[in-house]
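Sanity check record (used in CI):
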Amino acid sequence: MALDKNGIAKRIAQEVQDGFYVNLGIGIPTLVANYVRDDIEVEFQSENGVLGMGPFPFEGEEDADIINAGKQTITTMPGASFFDSATSFSMIRGKHVDLTILGAMEVAENGDIANWKIPGKMVKGMGGAMDLVASAENIIVAMMHTNKHGESKILKKCSLPLTGVGCVTKVVTNLAVLEVKDNAFYLLERAPGVSVEEIQNATEGNLIVNRQIPEMDI
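Expected output for CoA transferase subunit B:
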């Protein structure tokens, strides 16, 4: 059974380690804060100038002045701080963020990522995505394995305008966990009830299956 967006976020939360500073991109990544273990200390950073983001607020407890980069209302943890964009991007460009979690429209087998523009569709800009992928050394992508037409988004080569080149280290989709290295996707885990064959059929890029593939533990 393929995962939903919350399932993807729950699996990625297992990659977050004690003491990490983590940037959460727009979309599925924002859900990760809801699933991080209670016994570790993690600081979530948002590029609009927040350090110390917490889970999403309960209905009726939202504060419209406290938002993430996607303009969603958020909560903050004790000791959280707020600052301007210049300070925020100094953190990012200075490599002070241990893990970056982004959404994507396409990822290629060499680690390229396309996540900001579809030609012909109006966009407000690329936001901080290009700074994040240029500066981060540990980038996990959260995405659906295929598009609404059933076509693979895990590709040999991206067809959309690139956000970053050769930068993605791992991809977690609704079907699988993939490590990106040596110009290939290495299959690490599969979603509960999803077969290796299903993942192979949904993957255009070079997929390496070199061992028994366990199901995700979520």
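The chain has one domain: 5-47+85-208. If this sentence no longer matches the regenerated tokens, the check is flagged for review.
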